[in-house]
Specification:
2 copies of one chain form a homodimer. The relative contact order of chain A is 0.09. By secondary structure, chain A is α+β, with helices and mostly antiparallel strands. Helix content of chain A is about 30%, strand content about 25%. Chains A and B meet through strand 1, helix 7, helix 8, strand 6 and strand 7 of A and strand 1, helix 7, helix 8, strand 6 and strand 7 of B.
Amino acid sequence: MWFEVYRVHNPLFRDFLKEGFYLIHRNPYNRLRAGEHIVRGQMLCYFIVMLRTLIADLPQNVGKTVLIAGWVDVRRDHGKIIFCDIRDRTGTVQSVFLPQQGDALSIAKDLRSEWVVRLEGVVNERPEKMRVPGPLGSIELEVTAIEVLARAAELPFEKDTPVNLETLLNHLPLTLRSKRLRAVFTAQARIIQAFRDTLNKQGFTEFQSPALVGGDAEGGAAVFPVEYYYGKKAYLASSPQLYKQILVGSLERVFSTPKVFRAEKSATTRHLSEYSSLDLEMGFINDHTDVMAVVESVARAMATSVPKEVFLSLEASQPLLPSDSFPTIKLAEAHDLLFQETGVDKRAEPDLDPEDERWLCAWAARERGSDFLFVTHYPVQKRPFYVYEDESDPGFTKSFDLLFRGLEVSTGGQRIHNPFLLEEKIQARGLDPKNFSFYLQAFRYGMPPHGGAAIGLERFTARLLNIPNVKEAAIFPRDMNRIDTLLHDTNSEEF
Amino acid sequence: MWFEVYRVHNPLFRDFLKEGFYLIHRNPYNRLRAGEHIVRGQMLCYFIVMLRTLIADLPQNVGKTVLIAGWVDVRRDHGKIIFCDIRDRTGTVQSVFLPQQGDALSIAKDLRSEWVVRLEGVVNERPEKMRVPGPLGSIELEVTAIEVLARAAELPFEKDTPVNLETLLNHLPLTLRSKRLRAVFTAQARIIQAFRDTLNKQGFTEFQSPALVGGDAEGGAAVFPVEYYYGKKAYLASSPQLYKQILVGSLERVFSTPKVFRAEKSATTRHLSEYSSLDLEMGFINDHTDVMAVVESVARAMATSVPKEVFLSLEASQPLLPSDSFPTIKLAEAHDLLFQETGVDKRAEPDLDPEDERWLCAWAARERGSDFLFVTHYPVQKRPFYVYEDESDPGFTKSFDLLFRGLEVSTGGQRIHNPFLLEEKIQARGLDPKNFSFYLQAFRYGMPPHGGAAIGLERFTARLLNIPNVKEAAIFPRDMNRIDTLLHDTNSEEF
């Protein structure tokens, strides 16, 4: 109703018409033509004619009448005036409801957090002393009209209040609206795109790796069984490893970013039942160092894909990136260093404990100015069957882990490309080569020397953005006890 | 051994050193410095110093000595001379082994298809009358040295021979090397990236939608059960629908490209057990036509992301794209048209049969110059519970299918955003709102009018590239009878 009145009296009517032209051009499925504006019902016309302005674009519209849409972030009553912070995907702006706009003001009195509104108003510069920092801190919207698009129930807690992890996960549809989680998952979208962009530029081809597999690719990881057709079992892939190797034979350089699945009974801050694996594989390498060079380029792009302000808002520091390449240390050297510097003797161990990884990363940051550290040459028995043994360092492998701020975020290395040796290694692990017949075809028909790596997207995101638990870096995390809702106090059919 | 000899005598030695500098700079993990070249073993030096040239770059290197690496595509013996077509990820080049290069020629005599080799030689222009079409048709490599990196077993059939689908799928590690499949899956990588790029430019944020869900989101699709922890059942997601709607409340415009899973007992040319769903969802729409405008922009970008030569090589025609928007027709109008033009009366039916979709697409191509056609306003009962009923056309929905060359490749529309109405609709379908408690939170806390769509990547690829069976447009297709290998004549643990 209100819109009709508005249309008749608004002095900017002609400008709106021009804008209307643009919108009709943009979205021809409305089948409106410019001439119909006047003829049609005013209500309909209004929506067609008036284009939404994104909040981030308001500073370029000072003095103009605009339409914005979004959520009520906070309402503050100041005597006869009401202030509302309105949020859309691009920003938050203060909106003022004045007594002279009686209709709008009376609706504003009912507004609550998370109500969805469409507001019309004039963009004003704020008085000098009322300005706050940030690009939208110098303006406000003087509201002339409001439409409520959706109401919201009373919130169980304020959206931006820090809550414990259980509460956060129980209320994800609400907590995902918090400044913090929106910043995290907007950043994560940039991180994964940086991975793809970097590899596309280096001649890699993306492929869609399968989730359903016939068996456990790596031989050893805990996998989830799936009830497939006719009583047959399938499994959820724990890695795209075998598929990306097969594709080296076809496309030479490939990557994939599939969900992979781990059924370990583990409830650590590092475990998820499903996570996004950023996998790459490349042919015609000399050794694992060629893979490390690509992984470095990818890790740098991912680490620098997030704008400075996001680090600030999350109280995370920007990553230390050396001007030279990432520091690299053999596992044995790492154990020696640890013994030398701390007296802790783990030189007989085939791996690094979590506390060793943290110590080594602190050392790399202090001594080499790097939050990233490559550890190479893990022993053969600690790596999967396809790993390539270093001819000049027998018993140790041409493989690496990439540590980032105390946590392993990537594993990679050179793979065996000789089909006879590969079959031998499969057998030596007590696996049946017959179960790998599909995979082994790729090697039988000519496979170049190759290698690759995988980066855990959620782990990388967590380390980069100072998130203690990887569950907060997965948008809908699954673990032993939870698929959206808790499994033990809900029935398993519950969504 | 041979490399040592080469190093000492090659007059381009100094040039290689320069290139070596570059490589060392690019990959510092080798820890070689320029000065070490002379001191180290010649064999090792060779690999460091000599950079691989990609075959596509050979025309810019006429007269130069280069190193290439790849697969033997075909060998042809011509008296005392041997010709080999060598293939890498960028192209295929003819290589000539001449009698004066005795060592290389004698190795060349053993070469078979798919052997992996590294070749050194001089790039020559071919004599005028020996040229063939294509960018690499005017040059050849006069081989001066060869190294075999991997041999290949005898092929069961020539790689580029057309074979039936069963044979093709049984030998994917080999058939994925064919010109045809490499063209298809390189194109598919471009198609999915076009989807992402188009949406990123329009303010959408990517998210990683979960594969493991607690129940069947849409209520009705056949889903695969997963044995989760402690005897609990989980399911494989048949769609990211509910998650993308939840995220409209947080990020307003989102997309995701997850694998989704369908357990229907269907063996048609259109069915896969898992496929890539290109999903988008957006808030603050006026109606479904806003979604259609975005879907059109995405479909155009996807259709034009593939270079002309790929269509030629696959004997596919480039898609017909109207200069105006895609033609749009209501389902009822479509049935009327069908009756009028063909006499077939399906006006009482709530949906289109496959042959109707083909007829309508032929009509749209003929009459409107478009390989794409939107069909809107399917009846309420044929759509999921969350679909938005058209106030001005009761019983019909603000929803659409996008048909492309005779096949539905996308479905979308406006969704219900009122939580009370949504709960009502869930109940009306015989579903329990309690099972949707997590999802319904998003609506309770303020949800704007919104809508979205999903495009099947494999279907789209198949229609675009003239591939009759969607299984050939999925890189490792899964169906009722196959996960890599056939399920009925192998044990279920087989990879």
